[in-house]
Specification:
single chain; 620 residues; ten-stranded mixed β-sheet; five-stranded antiparallel β-sheet; 10 helices; 18% helix
Length: 620
């Protein structure tokens, strides 16, 4: 069963109610035929390992999903084996991938038994949960069923009998994730194309303009439809449910019927599907008879020819300023492209500097071919789609060092007052044309209400909200280029009384046994308390709720500051594209433009005087 085929998909809302489903009978017939052959040839006597030939009903799936959520502690689940793990459950497998590729135990009330249903791709987007059932070989299912019954914990990646080694044989898993992400974008309304930044004409001073227009000006995003799209190919009508607006269901039906007829994904571009539905085709849209038109380019461009490349990088960092904990900084990047070229040309260019950028992971758009691969160089060739698209994604190291260095300290003077200090170095070692367009530091206090603060920063302005202090070091429109900036900010901050905003204790949340959390020392005696600050922090942390695995920065006992910034002029990893090296075949005269932007992701300054989470590196 090569490639990717989808048996069925389901969408649930944040109340665990099923709001949409679609099944593909053509794919399901292939599964039933494979199951019949497998069960006859294997002679499996253990019913737990028998391959179930049928899909669950909508009500059975919704009930099984809710039961798994209760059993695994959250929608994603534990991902590792814990004391609450039951044999046969996802967490029993002891592999974090089970937070994304899950299994359900379907209870058949009429038959009085239950059976394992696997695999299911789980994707969360907005208030919706998307479940995709890909077509796999029956022996894959049987191998997973046996893995769920093993007594030992999960093996290392790539080891025999490990879940990861099993998934390497399933290309349908990757395709199903792409389907889930595409559907998630539609139901959440997040269907904006990748952004391309281009230089405007010299007469306006090289201002930046965000290019988001369609190649066909008369092909906007699909609007309201007056009638439901008929089922195409092997699909059947959806079960009518509440929870999504009728408009959303019509758009979703149209996308599914057009992008994956018979359950096999063809083109998951929402903009292409929308344009085809709105405009149809005419004789002028037909390609030359000697050329094969790819699915990702339903229309041919006509007009002034040019190619635009934009590198977008996101910097994630954990800065500790401690000798025993190394700082961590990573770069996640993508190259967005828009090729306004007539006909069906091929575009190629060498991607160089990979070893300098220390690229660890790189993936490409389906239209890309990589005929030449090397340590420091990769030749990239592609037949570009019509609209903006992401040509490639990568992860790398920050070649220029962190753009923000320094430390953040916060110590509690009393139960309701703290003293803080920032000392930061900004853009150290960075040269023109790199420009920091803005920089803001935020101290969040989600569990405390800020009453006032006293302090003056050496640069920029500071303001408060109900639960945070914000330091605007560099404001928009006042960018810094070609020089470094030293910034300091010290002061005190007062919170409202802790007693008036006391949160549920560990004990009330079932996380501590045998402790009376109300038995607290009311006074502090300097003679018998060596460290007043340590006592205060321990007292304030005692009633904090436990960390939510889904929100890793909600460790309320920890203090941190988050940095937000934007840098233009070049990438920080060293990834670049030389416009002069871009070739087009057949040869045409086309302008090639390149730009780059860098933005902060989770750029965290941990309090050097407090607790902080960190990853322990393995010792050789």
């Amino acid at each position: 069963m090569p490639g990717c085929s989808i048996r069925a998909l389901w969408i649930l809302n944040n109340q665990d109610l099923l709001v949409f489903s679609r099944r593909f009978p053509v794919v399901e017939r292939r599964w039933r035929a494979a199951c019949k052959s497998e069960n006859e040839n294997s002679g499996e006597e253990n019913p737990k390992h028998a391959v179930p030939p049928l899909l669950p009903t909508d009500s059975e799936l919704a009930a099984a999903f809710l039961e798994r959520k209760k059993r695994e502690g959250s929608t994603r689940g534990f991902g590792i084996r814990v004391k609450q793990s039951a044999e046969g459950s996802d967490s029993w497998v002891d592999d974090p991938i089970t937070r994304h590729i899950i299994s359900l135990y379907i209870n058949r009330e009429e038959e009085g038994d239950n059976y394992l249903f696997w695999p299911l791709i789980l994707h969360l987007k907005g208030q919706f949960c998307i479940l995709i059932s890909p077509l796999v070989e029956p022996w894959h299912f049987r191998a997973y069923a046996k893995t769920c019954q093993r007594s030992d914990c999960g093996n290392a990646v790539g080891a025999d009998r490990s879940l990861s080694s099993l998934l390497l044989d399933l290309p349908s898993i990757t395709g199903s994730f792409m389907v889930a992400h595409a559907i998630g974008d539609i139901v959440s309304g997040d269907t904006i194309e990748p952004e391309i930044v281009v230089n405007a004409s010299p007469t306006v001073g090289g201002l930046l303009d965000s290019l988001t227009a369609r190649a066909k000006a008369h092909a906007p995003i699909l609007a309201s439809t007056t009638s439901s799209t008929a089922a195409v190919g092997g699909t059947i009508a959806d079960t009518q449910k509440t929870g999504l607006r009728p408009l959303d269901k019509d758009v979703l039906r149209t996308f599914i019927s057009s992008s994956m007829p018979f359950g096999t994904p063809i083109d998951l571009s929402y903009s292409n599907i929308s344009a085809i539905k709105l405009n149809g085709f005419s004789s002028s849209d037909m390609p030359p008879s000697d050329l094969k038109q790819p699915a990702w380019k339903p229309y041919l461009y006509k007009g002034k020819q040019r190619i635009l490349f934009t590198i977008y990088e996101t910097i994630d960092a954990a800065m500790y300023d401690r000798d025993d904990i190394p700082d961590s900084i990573t770069v996640s990047g993508q190259v967005n492209c828009r090729a306004e070229l007539e006909g069906l040309p091929d575009v190629s260019f060498p991607l160089t500097g990979l070893s300098t950028a220390r690229v660890e992971v790189i993936s490409f758009h389906p239209c890309v071919q990589v005929p030449e691969q090397g340590v420091d160089r990769q030749a990239v060739m592609f037949s570009p789609p019509l609209n903006n698209f992401t040509l490639l994604r990568y992860q790398a190291h920050c070649g220029l060092g962190p753009p923000i260095k320094g430390f953040y300290q916060l110590s509690m003077i009393s139960e309701d007052e703290g003293a803080f200090l920032f000392r930061l170095g900004i853009m150290e070692g960075y040269k023109s044309p790199l420009t920091m367009e803005f920089c803001t530091v935020t101290m969040p206090f989600p569990m405390r209400r800020v009453v006032s603060f006293d302090g003056n920063p050496s640069i920029g302005t500071a303001l408060t909200t109900e639960h945070s202090v914000e330091w605007r070091i560099i404001s928009s429109g006042k960018g810094v280029s070609g020089k470094s900036v030293e910034a300091t900010f010290s002061g005190t901050i007062r919170f409202s009384s802790w007693k008036t905003q006391k949160v549920p204790s560990y004990r009330s949340m079932g996380c501590m046994d045998g402790e009376d959390t109300d038995d607290e020392t009311e006074g502090i005696n300097a003679n018998n308390m060596v460290n007043v600050e340590e006592f205060l922090m321990e007292k304030l942390s005692k009633d904090l709720p436990p960390v939510d695995l889904e929100e890793p920065f909600c460790w309320q006992a920890y203090n941190y500051a988050k940095v937000s910034f934007k840098i233009s002029g070049a990438s920080l990893s060293g990834m670049t594209i030389d416009p002069k090296s871009v070739s087009i075949y057949p040869a045409v005269k086309a302008l090639v433009e390149f730009s780059s932007q860098v933005a902060s992701g989770d750029y965290i300054l941990w309090n050097t005087l407090g607790k902080c989470p960190f990853a322990v590196t393995a010792k050789a």
